[in-house]
Amino acid sequence: MRILRTLTTAVAVLALATPAMAQSILRDAETERFFRDISKDMIVAAGLDPKSVQIVLIGDESINAFVTGGQNIFIHSGLIIAADNVNEVQGVIAHEIGHIAGGHNVRFNEGAGPATSISLLSLVGAAAAIALGAGEAGMALLGMGTAAAQGKFLSFTRDQESRADQAGAKYLGAAGLSGKGSIAFFQKLLGQEYRLAIPQDNEYARTHPLSGTRIANLENVYDKDPAWNRPPDPELQARFLRVRGKLIGFVDTPTRVMTRFPARDTSDAAHVARAYAWHRSAYPDLATAETDKLLKKLPHDPFVLELKGQILLESGKVDAALPVLREAVQYAPNEPLIQTLLGHALISTEKPTDFAEAEPLLRRAVAQDRENPFAWYQLGVIYDRKGDGPRAALAAAERYSLEGNAKGAAANARMALAGLPKGSPDWLRADDIALVAEDELGNKKRR
Fold it and tell me: Would 375 be classed as within a structural domain?
């Protein structure tokens, strides 16, 4: 599990509060495969393409999930840690799929537009009143208009949330999944609202319906569904516990991790959590001892091998990491994050033969996952060492574009264009990056 870049978020749609403006995107091959597997049937039930819906984990301890940027679902790390079982996470994802299928991001202006109109009309009226000398009346009119606009918009968002709740229930049922997890998670939210002293008697000042109302409405739907009493899939539940344990080991303090997962706990989740905790505490031997215990039970598990290889590599034991990561790639040949980690290890040796092995790995990784700035950086290193300046510049432009650095993206894209064959696929890609980046820079200047 690694932090690869930051994300600027938009409006949260399953939140108790607006998410922070800059949040870290957490990338992990095992976690992302888990998300794909637990959501596929619901996505299909919604009439969407599983390949087009991306579930992204972001580092934020709050219990939250939201949709933005098309068919992208963002889940806070705090939500995964707070969940007790895979069915609860599926309930949240079903709700977010409801937003996507309902086109709620696209239809945002349907709510914002009328609210803006009300505000503008009140502003005009207030200005006229003030101009006529009725200053107090004008300010009162402005306040009334703002309140009306806010009420109009909040009513719109509450309606969207209710529709997403009902759609999510439909997709869970179609996938043969119980709604108990969905109810349990809303009860967690309700408990958090009570702890934060959030009033439960005034729905009209909220972006979401009251949690108690949502629970009551959903129970009427779920308890009639044949899947209501179906327990979570045991295999998926085991995978959830391991993913959650890995996440806890990565984001929590080592002391708290060791308290939560004491040495007597021999579960898979405990081993991966302690492995991360020992690694972060600079005890690589103890960290790899935890992965070795798991590998005795699960030989050739690519994700455990990936974790062991990461620990060895980041501890400076590159030669020891290479065979472990090669085996991880062998047993998970279509996981670009693992390919990227092996490519990074090979580049770290500074050996020409290892560079030759790393190049096709990294080219395959970015072909499968173009959203990994670290992979582009590593590929750029290879091109630079080969003396291929234009493609090194293109790789840098890709990386800067993903990191939100428009100035760096534009400059490197222009360097690439100067040296690439005009009209070639790489030239066209560099041209696209340059145009987008320069347009963004132009907009910033105009603002």
Answer: no
